[in-house]
């Protein structure tokens, strides 16, 4: 994102300090200016008084159902902490939280993009519609033609 929006102020938030350290190395290696914050979702941003100030939120939350995390391919399970994968019983716990809280931080017309797993797109779209604060809800395919992202704008 920083490469595509060189004048944007980007806030990276993660609950994992290890993940933040890796992200800092990647940003430094790519000469990108990003501010890193340790915490859960919008907690650090609330402390910075960023309510109603963000133009966009992009997230790759944990979205795998708990019972499927144990059966992941070894190359995934071996290299990713459970915290980064387990999205609760149906895989949507963290996405529900993002749908609920993001409108308080986004400006009118601000964009919301989240990654999800196969089979979750219609449910995520429904969550956004039911919330009532989103418009222009779209499902996007990945390079394999799989529904992978949902985007929306704040009313």
Shape type? globular
* Largest beta sheet: strand ordering: 3-4-6-5
User: Could you give the order of the helices and strands?
Assistant: EHEHEHHHHEHEE
What is the percentage of strand-forming residues?
25-35%
Unreliable spans are: none
Biggest sheet features: 4 strands, mixed
- Count of structural domains: 2
CATH topology of the largest domain: Rossmann fold
Rg for CA atoms: 16 Å
Which structural class do you get from the secondary structure elements? alpha/beta
Plain-language structure description:
With 155 residues, this protein is of the alpha/beta class. The chain has two domains: 6-39, no CATH class; 54-154, Vaccinia Virus protein VP39 (Rossmann fold), CATH 3.40.50.150. Helices cover 32% and strands 26% of the residues. The protein has helices at 17-29, 43-47, 66-69, 74-77, 82-85, 93-101, 121-131; strands at 11-14, 35-38, 54-59, 106-115, 134-141, 147-154. The chain has a four-stranded mixed β-sheet with strand order 3-4-6-5, with helices on one face. A two-stranded parallel sheet has the order 1-2. A hairpin with a 5-residue loop joins strand 5 (134-141) and strand 6 (147-154). Helix 6 (93-101) packs parallel to helix 7. The longest helix has 13 residues, at 17-29. It is globular, with a radius of gyration of 16 Å. The two termini are 23 Å apart. The model has no long low-confidence stretch (mean pLDDT 93).
